[in-house]
Specification:
Length: 118
Amino acid sequence: MYGYPNRERGWWLQGGTWSFSWSVSHSMRWYLSGSTKGLTARQVGSPEELDLGDVICYDFQGDGRFDHTTIVTAKDGAMPLVNAHTYDAYHRTWDYKDSYAWRENAKYVFFKINDYFT
């Protein structure tokens, strides 16, 4: 983690406060797409490329504003399953099609978390 105490920088939780990327889905999506220090990731093209601990960002309306983020916590064959806490979800299918939030024009971004921190 780095960036403390600047809430607009890095990915961190410290001293009773946190970065925007720690708590806002849209900020997390943009942080992961460009981070070169601390928590880093690379974007991949499909959910089948993800493993445990990787991240999926959701733009349910398809408007470019990312509404939700989940962590891959299990796999069903090649397909990732996710947990979430907005409404408790345990090993939910990654695409969220069973959610009231899902829309036909939903967009997803898939991130493989790098194995080491720089």
